[in-house]
Amino acid sequence: MNYFITAIGTDSGKTLIAAALTKALKADYWKPIQAGFPTDSETVREFTNGEVYIHPEHIILETPASPHAAAAIENRQLKIKDIKLPVTNNNLIIEGAGGCMVPLSNQEMMIELAPYFNAEIVLISNNYLGSINHTLLTVNLIKSRGYSIKGIIFNGPANKATEDVILDYTKLTCIYKVPQLESIDYQVIDKLSQELRKSWNELD
């Protein structure tokens, strides 16, 4: 099974959660499009102590910017049809860049990778002023396109009132709530992966 990790915005903790979920499901990891360094693949490798298989990126852009902007600066073109899914018999965790509507070009958006790869979406939400609006808009977009959503993961300081509104409105399954982390290292990821595995198994 393929799972596409996306979020309601940037700096949401996608790489942290992708690393923990890859380890939890004993899956492979893949970042199709990387813009800037260090790469998220390198971070996942560090977080998992090299215990998971990481597929090479389809394209690496040197400019730390939105993929469409970085590609324009570097005189490159990004087209979804040119991206080839890695060959694996394992579960595959696919990490997007930024939020759902981050552009790959003037015609294609990041979220369109999910159906192209036949991947179920795992949505990450953070609690901050405005996050309800951002989360509900994102979910409405995904549902309006008929894309499959596995569930939602809340990352960061808990806010029960916010989380309850989002879950009641969207009817999404809460896969897990990642607490506020003071630091991130292999031990933290290992603990998260164990808790994520338990939550994930309870959903199936």
Description:
There is one protein chain. The protein is an alpha/beta fold. The chain has one domain: Rossmann fold, CATH 3.40.50. It contains seven helices and nine strands. It has a seven-stranded parallel β-sheet, sandwiched between helices. A two-stranded parallel ribbon has the order 3-5. Strand 8, helix 6 and strand 9 form a beta-alpha-beta unit. Helix 1 (14-24) packs across helix 2 (40-47), helix 1 (14-24) crosses helix 7 (186-203) and helix 5 runs parallel beside helix 6. The longest helix is centred in the C-terminal third of the chain and has 18 residues, at 186-203. The model has no long low-confidence stretch (mean pLDDT 95).
Report how far apart the termini are: 13 Å
Work out the radius of gyration: 16 Å
Strand order of the largest sheet: 4-2-6-1-7-8-9
According to DSSP, the number of beta strands is 9
- Written as H for each helix and E for each strand, in order along the chain, the element string is EHEEHEEHEHEHEHEH
The CATH superfamily bears the name: P-loop containing nucleotide triphosphate hydrolases
CATH topology name = Rossmann fold
What is the percentage of strand-forming residues?
15-25%
CATH architecture: 3-Layer(aba) Sandwich
- What is the arithmetic mean of pLDDT? 95
Major beta sheet summary: 7 strands, parallel
Number of H/I helices: 7
- Provide the structure class: alpha/beta
Shape: globular
Number of domains: 1
Q: State the helicity in percent bands.
A: 25-40%
The CATH class name reads: Alpha Beta
